[in-house]
TrEMBL record:
InterPro entries to which the protein is assigned, alphabetical: Amidohydro-rel, Metal-dep_hydrolase_composite, Metal_Hydrolase, Metallo-dep_Hydrolase
Protein name (Swiss-Prot/TrEMBL): Imidazolonepropionase-like amidohydrolase
Start and end residues of each Amidohydrolase-related domain: 24-125
Top-level taxonomy: Bacteria, Bacillati, Actinomycetota, Actinomycetes, Kitasatosporales
Gene3D superfamilies for this protein: Metal-dependent hydrolases, Urease, subunit C, domain 1
Pfam families to which the protein is assigned, alphabetical: Amidohydro_1
């Protein structure tokens, strides 16, 4: 995977119960330095739209990734895999799509659920302040 610059997308929320080795694989791949993208297949299966993405980030951390690794997989890692150079990082010339949280997800990945505001293309679309 490293030699061929292959990105690993585990989709744990689907495979976690049926494939018990998946969590161990995530840790091995992350420790080896392979690129990981958070992919939730959010349009399929159970759950509300977008909720699977939050669960996937939590499962990645439960599998041994750090919260920061999970956040990178969900942002720049996913944007790279989708060939979207306009997404995934905060930088000039990129889309202004952001979530503002009321708690630090680098300390506890479940803090991704502490939504304060959503900004889409520079416009506030959700404001829970």
């Amino acid at each position: 995977m490293l030699e061929r610059d292959i990105t690993y997308t585990p989709t744990l929320w689907i495979h976690d119960a049926t494939h018990p080795d998946t969590r161990g694989n995530v840790k091995k791949v992350a420790d080896a330095g392979v690129r990981i993208a958070l992919g939730s297949d959010t349009f399929s299966g159970r759950g509300l739209f977008g909720a699977n993405t939050l669960e996937e980030a939590e499962l990645m951390v439960a599998a041994g990734m750090t919260p920061v690794q999970s956040l990178v997989a969900a942002t720049s890692g996913a944007a790279r895999q989708c060939v979207r150079p306009d997404l995934g990082t905060v930088a000039p010339g990129k889309r202004a799509d952001l979530i503002v949280l009321t708690a630090d997800p680098t300390q506890d990945i479940s803090n991704l659920r502490a939504l304060g505001m959503t900004i889409l293309n520079g416009e506030i679309v959700v404001d829970k302040r």
